[in-house]
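We modelled the chain as a single entity of 206 amino acids. Its sequence is:
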Amino acid sequence: MAATVGRTPTLCKTLRKRLQNCFRRVARRGEAAPPRPRPAASPPGVVGGACDPADMEMTLQLTVDCADPRRMVAFWAEALGYTPEPAPGGHTTWRAYWQDLGVPPEELPDGSGETPESIVDPDGRNPRIWFQQVPEPKNGKNRLHLDLKVGGGRDVAIGVRIERVTRKVTRLTAAGATVLHIMDEPDMPYYAVVLQDPEGNEFCVV
């Protein structure tokens, strides 16, 4: 990634360097780094992985490439009921946090980090979403998209689902989304609306 666009490469290098220095200090003292616990073998017929301790520690983050993180934060916070993520450790801005980590000035263009570039679920149940500024525009259809399920599912009458979806779509278009097409299948019955966010990323309201 170009130096004027994001902080990820330098931030990763900074953290990796600190870890390497830590291991060097441990080696100089003649101490052994603690081994990583090995998960117990799965019983016969049971596929391992799902209950391994290492997997249970994993969390999920969604990263969205974009041109304008501030605009995307505002839109998707509204769409998902998320909140902009405040800077950690008592820092007033993310920029101050990155500077405290040692990210060089050339990796922090004007305005970068002055407002949040990520959003979080206020209930802590759903994944964090980070909007990563990149130089290239979106090119082609998404290979991954979000479905905002607001209708209530097939146990809810189709008329009620249409009303709920329409109400959500109205809010999202007011926030900057564009309707691409309506998927109306009364014989199934099925109803959904395909939209684009302010930077052209497709998603559905179902």
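As a brief sanity check on the tokenised model: The chain has five helices and eight strands. Residues 18 and 84 are 29 Å apart (CA to CA).
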